[in-house]
Amino acid sequence: MAKILILDDDPIIVAFLTSLLRDSGYAVVAAQDGSTGLDLARAERPDLILTDLVMPYRDGYEILRELKSDPALRAIPVIVLSMKEREKDIVRGLDLGADDYIVKPFGAHELLARIRRRLGPATAAGRGGPGAPGAS
Amino acid sequence: MTERALLFAIAVIAGVLVLLSVVIVLNKAIREARASHRRRWRRALEPGLQKYLAAQEGPLPEFANVPQRGAGREAAVDFLLDHSEVVRGEARDRISRALEGLGFVDQETARLGSRSWWHRASAADRLGLSRSPRAIEALTQHLEDADGDVRLRAAKALGMIGGQAAIRPLVAALAQPSRWSTLRVAEILASMGGGVESELVATWHTMPRVSRLATLDILGRLRIPGSAAFLLERLSDEDPDLRARAAHALGKLGDPTVHRGLIGCLRDPEWPVRAMAAKALGRIRAAEGVEPLTALLQDRQWWARSNAAEALRDLGARGAAALLKALDAPDPFARHQAVLMLEQSGVIDQYAADLPLGGAPAENARAVLKRIADLGQTARLEDLARSHPDAATRTSLAGLLAARGILTGPPGPPPARA
């Protein structure tokens, strides 16, 4: 089962994404700040990371920089999910190595489609299954 | 007797204080108990509500057993309103349908009829979050509310709901500057995106002047390429304010193919039109604009000259070449603006860096920088002579300025490392 790390400081979004992704067959881990998020990325080695840009301690840009400069984490696809919709913010995110950029508010099915494009279809085994450790 | 009366008064005051404290504590306890009750409901309902939002079909009762009244319903409504700002597309439509099914839209529509303005304002806010098209009619009526705050919130709510039925009354509201801040309504319309442009263009011929002015601003902010032809037509409107706003909007559109119309406006008899056309040519980066913009540096109006210089600054190497030529213009303002723009675009810094290179580049740089120094606008040159990171550049510049009696003494020390 593919594992997705969610990084967002908004508990409503974390809860919604966790439910959406689990019901779609993914295992989920989540953090609400950048530092914990990086630790989780190193410990859990997720298959994909969904990250906000504005977060406490370390913002999404820093996360991208750290991930892409670490040979062990570099290959993990990262999708930015942010309220920042200006072209320069999107370009900055993509330049720092984000594989995709989705502006909030987001379409749930569009997000799932973009994740499937990166990871392939989720396994049916994960549907409705118990949450992964660390999930909020 | 007096002492007794005093004691009695103190006892009464103490009693009232104790009573008040009890009331406050009780009130707080009741509110906390209610909030806690609602949180429990939310925790219980949340898994089903999450699944409802993520699903593509099926009504709310298939996913969560939400009661039609009480704390459970309130908790579900809170959850749905919280998520209406997070998601869009199908999930947002499902939020609207769930809120309609829970009677929330009808309840808030009824609150819009409240005597208290704050109830009406809050109802408008919540109806906006519901994004239910069923609320459009009631919200449209409250665009005429006696209270300005309610009118504005109703307008914002219509903006959030979107769709042609919500756009129409907002476009009509542009025509009522006495009751409305046109700017606020224009902002709301500009944020609504698709559909606004067609409504504005369709109603243009019946609009009063104030709506037309706002329309041109909105079209510029919407940046829909398809509106270029409409805006180009407005460049020949008989009202100069409309021509100027159309030129400004074309600049915001960023489509370089509209340069011909804008260049034509540089000869407009009204200076605001010339100024806005110059600004727009810089924004669309139209290389064809270099020559007419250079000519505009001699315009009799300072705003037109200033915008022409700024536009040339934004036109890359050809614009910079035109600004360098303008250093010899007969008009002192044109010369001043040329130096300023060369400074802002980094051209002066580039020439300064060329000084120590030797050969033709250094000679060319020396000639340009001498000309600038002779014009008296030496602030940037002095700054570079003191703090340029390259010692040879500092020395060359200091020598050039000292020869003109502008900077005396040795060049500055190397800048401190950050």
Binned strand content of chain A: 15-25%
- The percent range for strand residues of chain B is under 5%
* Biggest interface found: A-B, 16 and 17 residues
Helix content of chain A: 40-55%
Q: Calculate the mean pLDDT score of chain A and round it.
A: 87
Summing up helix and strand content along with how strands pair, one would put the structural category of chain B as mainly alpha
The number of helices of chain B is: 23
Helix content of chain B: over 70%
Number of helices of chain A: 5
Shape field of chain A: globular
* Strand segment tally of chain B: 1
Largest sheet of chain A: 5 strands, parallel
- Strand neighbour order, sheet with most strands of chain A: 2-1-3-4-5
Question: Overall pLDDT of chain B, averaged?
Answer: 90
Structural class of chain A: alpha/beta
Give the SSE map.
The complex is a heterodimer of chains A (136) and B (418).
Chain A: E1 3-7, H1 11-23, E2 27-31, H2 34-44, E3 48-51, H3 60-69, E4 78-82, H4 87-95, E5 100-103, E6 106-107, H5 108-119
Helix pairs in contact in A: 2-3
Chain B: H1 2-54, H2 70-84, E1 87-88, H3 90-101, H4 104-111, H5 117-130, H6 136-141, H7 148-161, H8 164-173, H9 182-192, H10 196-203, H11 209-222, H12 228-234, H13 240-253, H14 259-265, H15 271-283, H16 290-296, H17 302-313, H18 316-325, H19 332-344, H20 347-354, H21 359-375, H22 379-387, H23 391-402
Provide an overview of this structure:
The complex is a heterodimer of chains A (136) and B (418). Chain A is of the alpha/beta class. Chain A is globular and about 30 Å long. Chain A has helices spanning 11-23, 34-44, 60-69, 87-95, 108-119, and strands at 3-7, 27-31, 48-51, 78-82, 100-103, 106-107. In chain A, strand 3, helix 3 (60-69) and strand 4 form a beta-alpha-beta unit. Chain B has helices at 2-54, 70-84, 90-101, 104-111, 117-130, 136-141, 148-161, 164-173, 182-192, 196-203, 209-222, 228-234, 240-253, 259-265, 271-283, 290-296, 302-313, 316-325, 332-344, 347-354, 359-375, 379-387, 391-402; one strand spanning 87-88. The longest helix of chain B has 53 residues, at 2-54. Chain B contains 23 helices and 1 strand. At the A-B interface, helix 1, strand 6 and helix 5 of A face helix 1, strand 1 and helix 3 of B.
